[in-house]
Amino acid sequence: MGAVRLIQKPENGQLIINVPDEMRDQTLVVEFHPIWEEQSQEKTLAEISRAFFEKLPAPDPNLNWDELNVYKQ
Fold first, then answer.
1. Under 8 Å CB-to-CB from 63, ≥6 apart: which residues?
2. pTM for the predicted model, two decimal places
3. C-alpha 30, offset from chain centre
4. Three-class DSSP category at 11
């Protein structure tokens, strides 16, 4: 079985984790960190990527792409 992701808010500083039957006798790694506000809104990878690329500067329309072509150099 693959990884199990659990998002849970602690109650009185405690988290309760029920381990799946097929993992009961295995050594497990438990990692936890605060969730980012952006992640809590369940954005898709496409939405996150679009937001990232919108922050990038617009390409220079006067750029000569032929100068960057390694096959013509």
1. none
2. 0.37
3. 18
4. strand
